[in-house]
């Protein structure tokens, strides 16, 4: 009785413990956006404290949002989805740090290009999520330390970042090569306690606001120019366009790299933007327009506090009909481009015949068709991946297993195949001298020889489970209907077969050169150009010896690939030409 009561008490306790652990783990795995405080020291009694956004992983590692980190350090950054460029201008030399998706190296270069590039090796590649770049906070600190030559250190025990952004270390050189191993420690320097509030940017008057980027947003009736900034809001003056179509924006107590910020635009409302640092500590932008002053309807300036941008808007008189026509042409071109993409040859289905309990044809030396064609199929897939990295390879089987004929075509359709290539070996019971490759497309047989080949390849269905039910209705009438359905791809299938057969042709082959057609069941269901390749005759002793040779199998695979290559080049050229708008 006592044991029973103990078990009754333990059971709820165990359940409670399980739910506590489960909830803890769930919270750890779904931790949301967080932040770490960054304390920056610029000099004696100068500094500020600001948050660096990021996310804590389930393993407790804090991933710092590099965009947030750079803004906190008064640096500029640009991210195009795969590569982030961070710029600094602490002294006379302006440098950039470039992070790339999937790369463990950060590249450092000067904006003027007057020093060799520098490479920093990271412990891990940047992580990109939702258009943001992340690095483990300690690795981000080490990167900034070695790049800037200034101490940026993560204090794990206090969960904060300390940065001293005074003078560059005397021995720090842009020509050095840095490495960031796990046990690397930043060079120690003396820290001065910042005198700012621990949660807000003081934006002291002694600090210059950094103009770190320019972006033009084109509108149907003009343009919007955004000057992005890091630092406190500054007074700015705006002079509207003069007779030459030139306007000016001057931002007080501001800095930036004129060489990096200068812009020239070959088309659009804005012709060029020329920055200049003034003696009074301001930064002035001279903006030249591509349109005559008479066509400018209005121009205005505002400060966008939400984004910390200085914004100029320019509106001009427009031809509404011309805009509508241009937009219509753009939509048509986009539609044509989508059609071209839809029909691009970007997925090839490779079907290795037979397999598993079905050996296929067997040669006089015991060579099994299923083994030969599997090797050729794998080699063909390898060539496609190497030569066409933009093309997906889909196998109906990659190992020695049995796949029903009906399912092979369904696999091709399911995974969006654009062409279907079924690979086989031939055999002749009555003639051991016949040899050579043959290529077939789907259709009613026109010769007895073609009928015999199709009957042999189709005979495998008798070994399938519930074959009578699965293939109910697969009669001559069904073959005719399937052939009619394939008629949409008849031209492409024939061209593909001819290209492959031309490359496969071997000296001494006594089979009639030409594409054949027959009712191969494996070709009944794919909704795409489809061919069946008989690579040679296992019933011929000399050809069996060739077909079982591993090097010869690779040669056969490459010959098939060359045929596909010839077909793809002609096919995609034809599709691109058809999609090109007529003037």
Helices and strands, with pairings:
Elements: H1 2-29, E1 33-43, E2 46-56, E3 62-65, H2 66-72, E4 76-79, E5 83-88, E6 95-100, E7 105-110, E8 118-121, E9 127-129, E10 132-136, H3 137-148, E11 152-155, E12 160-164, E13 178-179, E14 209-219, E15 222-230, E16 236-239, E17 246-251, E18 254-255, H4 258-261, E19 263-264, E20 270-277, E21 283-289, E22 296-304, E23 309-316, H5 320-342, E24 347-352, H6 369-387, E25 392-395, H7 405-414, E26 419-426, E27 438-442, H8 448-458, H9 467-470, H10 476-486, H11 490-504, E28 516-518, E29 530-537, H12 541-547, H13 550-579
Parallel strand pairs: 1-12, 8-13, 14-18, 24-25, 24-26, 26-29, 27-28
Antiparallel strand pairs: 1-2, 2-3, 3-10, 4-5, 5-6, 6-7, 7-8, 9-10, 11-12, 14-15, 15-23, 16-17, 17-21, 19-20, 20-21, 22-23, 27-29
Describe the fold and architecture.
By secondary structure, the chain is of the alpha+beta class. The protein contains 13 helices and 29 strands. The chain has a seven-stranded mixed sheet with strand order 9-10-3-2-1-12-11. A six-stranded mixed sheet has the order 4-5-6-7-8-13, with helices on one face. Strands 25-24-26-29-27-28 form a six-stranded mixed sheet, sandwiched between helices. A hairpin with a 4-residue loop joins strand 22 (296-304) and strand 23. The protein is elongated, with a radius of gyration of 35 Å. The N and C termini lie far apart (95 Å).
């Amino acid at each position: 009785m006592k044991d029973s009561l103990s078990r009754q008490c333990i059971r709820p306790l165990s359940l409670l413990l399980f739910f506590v652990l489960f909830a803890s783990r769930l919270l750890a795995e779904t931790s949301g956006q967080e932040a770490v405080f960054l304390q920056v020291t610029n000099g004696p009694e100068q500094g500020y404290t600001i948050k660096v956004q990021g996310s804590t992983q389930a393993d407790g590692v804090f991933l710092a949002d590099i965009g947030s980190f750079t803004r906190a350090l008064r640096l500029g950054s640009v991210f195009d989805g795969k590569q982030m460029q961070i710029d600094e201008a602490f002294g006379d030399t302006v440098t950039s740090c470039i992070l790339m998706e999937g790369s463990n190296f950060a590249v450092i270069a000067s904006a003027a290009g007057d020093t060799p590039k520098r490479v920093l090796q990271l412990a891990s590649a940047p992580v990109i999520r939702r258009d943001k770049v992340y690095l483990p906070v300690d690795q981000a600190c080490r990167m900034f330390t070695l790049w800037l030559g200034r101490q940026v250190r993560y204090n794990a025990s206090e969960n904060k970042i300390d940065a001293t952004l005074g003078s560059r270390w005397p021995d720090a050189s842009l020509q050095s090569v840095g490495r960031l191993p796990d046990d690397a420690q930043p060079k120690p320097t003396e820290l001065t306690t910042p005198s700012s509030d621990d949660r807000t940017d003081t934006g002291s008057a002694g600090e210059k606001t950094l103009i770190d980027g320019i972006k033009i947003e084109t509108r149907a009736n003009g343009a919007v120019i955004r000057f992005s900034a890091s630092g406190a809001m500054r007074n700015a003056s705006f002079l509207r366009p003069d007779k030459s179509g030139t306007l000016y924006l001057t931002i007080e107590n501001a800095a930036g790299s004129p060489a990096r910020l200068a812009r020239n635009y070959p088309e659009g409302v804005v012709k060029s933007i020329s920055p200049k640092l003034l003696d009074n500590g301001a930064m002035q932008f001279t903006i030249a327009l591509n349109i005559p002053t008479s066509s400018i309807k209005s121009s205005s300036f505002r400060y966008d506090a939400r984004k910390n941008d200085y914004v100029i808007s320019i509106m001009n008189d427009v031809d509404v009909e011309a805009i509508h026509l241009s937009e219509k042409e753009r939509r048509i071109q986009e539609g044509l481009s989508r059609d071209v993409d839809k029909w691009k040859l970007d997925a090839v289905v490779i079907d290795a015949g037979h397999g598993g309990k079905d050996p296929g044809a067997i040669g006089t030396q015991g060579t099994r068709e299923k083994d030969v064609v599997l090797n050729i199929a794998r080699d063909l897939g390898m060539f496609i991946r190497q030569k066409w990295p933009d093309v997906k390879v889909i196998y109906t089987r990659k190992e020695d297993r049995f796949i029903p004929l009906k399912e092979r075509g369904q696999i091709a359709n399911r995974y969006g195949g654009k062409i279907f290539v079924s690979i086989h070996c031939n055999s002749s019971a009555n003639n051991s001298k016949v040899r050579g490759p043959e290529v077939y497309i789907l259709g009613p047989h026109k010769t007895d020889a073609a009928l015999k080949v199709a009957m042999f390849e189709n005979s495998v269905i008798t070994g399938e489970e519930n074959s009578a039910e699965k293939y109910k209705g697969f009669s001559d009438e069904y073959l005719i209907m399937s052939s009619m359905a394939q008629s949409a791809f008849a031209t492409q299938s024939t061209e593909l077969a001819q290209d492959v057969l031309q490359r496969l042709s071997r000296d001494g082959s006594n089979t009639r050169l030409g594409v054949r057609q027959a009712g191969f069941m494996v070709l009944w269901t794919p909704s795409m150009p489809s061919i069946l390749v008989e690579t040679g005759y296992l019933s011929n002793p000399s050809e069996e010896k060739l077909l079982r040779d591993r090097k010869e199998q690779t040669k056969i695979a490459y010959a098939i690939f060359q045929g596909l290559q010839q077909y793809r080049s002609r096919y995609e050229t034809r599709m691109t030409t058809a999609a090109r708008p007529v003037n």
